[in-house]
Amino acid sequence: MKTVAIIGASGAIGSAFAHSLARRPDVRAVHAFSRTAARFNAEKIISGFIDLTDEPSIAAAAAAATKQSPLDLVIVATGMLHTAQFMPEKSLRDLSAEKFGLIFAVNTFGPALVAKHFLPELNRSERAIFAALSARVGSISDNRLGGWYAYRASKAALNMIIRNAAIETARGAPQAVVVGLHPGTVNSPLSKPFQGNAGARCIFEPCDAAARLIAVLEGLEPKDSGKCFAYDGQEVLP
Fold first, then answer.
1. Over the stretch 11-34, which tens digit does the pLDDT of each residue have?
2. Which helix (H) or strand (E) holds 51?
3. Is the pTM of this model over 0.90?
4. Structural domains of the chain, ranges and CATH numbers in brackets
5. DSSP letter for each residue of 109-153
């Protein structure tokens, strides 16, 4: 029986992860953390508070999730591309320190601090997984369009953190898998302004995206640790 923690459980994909995993017979409990209150009508789901910009709250969440048992799966399902005040940059003239600070706080610094406090709590007796939502646009080698400076850079930095954390974690937990996940274009507030560019066939509902990514995670082995994988199981190149 597995214990799961979802970070960002009030979001579209995070909520779908929580519901999907709670329905599995091999899951004991799903600790669903978010900054805004998230209510789940499921016996296995335990709601909790976390703020990725507040490290003490991250430490408290890790402690709360592991009172009964170590964690078998941690998914960081948070992310920021735009706000009501600004959209992704199209050119250098759109850059600002404020945008970079906000995007990196959510997409890079937050997941890094989650890794700091949650990775030591992984189950060391068998395979356990730490996964964070990344994005294909964080791939430097795959960047052919430019733009989206802060978002691309924040996800590229996250991928490096995942790689570093995988190397360090393997020294004490050789069965652990630490990876990034590219969910594709999901029908969520994050992608809503850009869905016209994707085409209807390329937009996944949150429940479908979560199911695809869970299937990817199930097929991963320790040798895959440190990499980033898309919803179809293909590796996203650095």
1. 999 999 999 999 999 999 999 999
2. none
3. yes
4. 2-230 (3.40.50.720)
5. IHHHHHHHHHGGGB-SSS-EEEEEE--GGG-STT--S---HHHHH
